[in-house]
Design goal:
The chain is an all-alpha fold and 281 residues long. It has helices at 2-19, 34-40, 46-49, 57-63, 72-84, 98-145, 150-159, 164-177, 182-193, 196-211, 216-280.
Length: 281
Amino acid sequence: MLIALLLCAASLWCIWSAVRPRSKPSAVDDRVPGVIAVTRRLGLSTGTARPGMRRDDAVWIVRAGLDGAVTRTDVAAARLVLASAPLIVFPLTLVHPAFAAVAALLGALGWSTPGIIIGRMARERRRAIVGQLPDVLDLLGVCVESGMALDPALRTVAARLEGPLGEELDRVIADLATGATRPSAYRDLGRRVGAPEVDGVMASLITADALGTPLTRGLKEQAVSLRSVTVQRARDRAAQAAPKMQLVVAMLMVPAVLILVVTVMGLELARQIGPVLGGVG
């Protein structure tokens, strides 16, 4: 069985060596997950990769900030390749039937991996945007309070902002420059990010634009509210961490200490009773 596992690992390594990218990645390719970059080299067409497509792939690609760098075909091809790669293990079922279960488990894991990676990237990007949002609202409030209109204020803030929120503001500015209305540009930003906090801010901006209400006070209130939510979430995570730490202590550290104590007691007992038993014998 050990030889069969070694042959399987060697075969997978050969496949990886054949398809792994060897050229220096571009700035756009830096954002592409390694799994998708590797399987993309196989050049599967859209028709071939269609069985691996899922309806919400396009949404998650946009939320992960990969639109323009990754397509639905890339994700579907990665699913199919990773799910079918463990088929190489099936001939080994002649050696032991357990290899069939191993291949099925690896296939399921391979099918899920692209979606898991993109979902994690989307969640990290959303957290980064929500974390930047209060500061951006403060800057917008200062610009508007100084007499600047909202569109120039957005351009001023976006020019000095780095990270995913800066990219999204640049996209909003580009949409407005190409003739999109403010409500549609704001709603598109909310859909791309997929965060309730961003949706609330965009709704406030749309309402202020429609009713002509002052923006300064609303932006400040939104910033204060977002900071309060962030602090509360940090407290909730800290409260959830305590039981997890207690579980680790109870499951790992306490048994280890007990084993150490029992071992020392056993050695001491053996040292004390050993001569007595030896004399009796």
